Amino acid sequence: MNEKIHAITIIIDTLASDIIESLRRKIINEPAFVQLYAALDDAFVLIQYEEQIDRELAALLFLIYSQLVTQSNYVYDKSPFVPHIGKMQGMIRKIFGGTLQNI
Q: Is 75 left (phi over 0), alpha (psi -120 to 50) or beta?
């Protein structure tokens, strides 16, 4: 695995812990999401022409996204969650969309 992707994966892993911990309390950790989106933009630049995506990175994105959706189902006011659900869907499509088309 590319060293830069590995470094980004470590950053995302750390952010995932912070994000999921907050989500389980039904709170959106805005600063962590901002950092996550920046890391995902960096990852996209590095992997946009790759045919495969690192499993660990894919697993982390799926975990964050699934927890975001799951925890949003347990709150009355979903408005803080909805923008992040849409943004995560867009980021996942952006990162995995190109690689899925090449397979």
A: beta
Cα–Cα dist 69/95, whole Å: 19
- Give the tens place of pLDDT for each residue, 69-86: 999 999 999 999 999 999
Residues 6+ apart with CB under 8 A from 10: none
Maximum separation of any 2 CA atoms in the chain, in Å: 42
AA letter at 54: D
Is the Cβ–Cβ distance between 35 and 49 less than 8 Å?
no
pTM value? 0.86
Distance (Å, rounded) from C-alpha 45 to C-alpha 48? 6
Residues 6+ apart with CB under 8 A from 39: 8, 11, 12, 15
| Identity at 19, one-letter amino acid code | I
